[in-house]
Amino acid sequence: MSAKINSTSRFFRTVIVGVACLGLAACGGKDRPRADLAASQVNTIGVNSYLWRAALDTVAFAPLLQADSAGGVIVTDWYANPGNPNERVKVTVTILDQDLRADALRVAASRQVAQGGGWVDAPVQAATVQKLEDIILTKARDLRRKAVAS
To answer: Assuming Cys at both sites, which of 76, 80, 97, 141 could form a disulfide with 88, CB separation 3.0 to 4.6 Å?
Structure first.
């Protein structure tokens, strides 16, 4: 009877070890797809890190008033291009989501022109805001592509 229990016990141990080895074998290997650095998982700052870095890089031409990585808001101070000192702009970038998507980004710009010794609000062309969004999204995608490739 004892020999039968030992052989049954040995059989179950062998089965358990075999199943465990198969499970571990499925975890490794070169055929496994590379882990995608999903934007929602690369966010030690509260928002999509690729969008955040790309937005900061894009508005680096102007001094920053506010940069809240937890809330995803970047606000620049007024910036006047030295080539056109009679005009100045202010940019606000809001990152709305943790995913790298076009609708996770909102850019707003204000423009003023010098008039009569002061600054007067002037319209901003929609193409200007769209261009800033495109630049940020392109940079964010490039950052993500480089991170996944490395």
So the answer is: 80
- The H or E element containing residue 49 is helix 49-58
Return d(Cα 49, Cα 143) in angstroms, integer.
9
pLDDT (average), residues 26-47: 52
Q: What single DSSP character describes residue 121?
A: E
Q: E strands within 3-104?
A: 64-68, 73-76, 79-80, 87-95
- The CA dihedral of 139, 140, 141, 142, to the nearest 10 degrees, is 50
Q: Give the residue among 129, 115, 104, 124 at the shortest CA–CA distance from 47.
A: 104
**Distance between CA atoms of residues 31 and 54, nearest Å:** 32
Per-residue pLDDT reduced to its tens digit, 95-123: 998 999 999 999 999 999 999 999 999 99
- CA–CA dist 26, 55 (Å, integer): 40
Interacting residues of 72 by C-beta distance below 8 A, sequence separation 6+? 46, 47, 52, 94, 95, 96
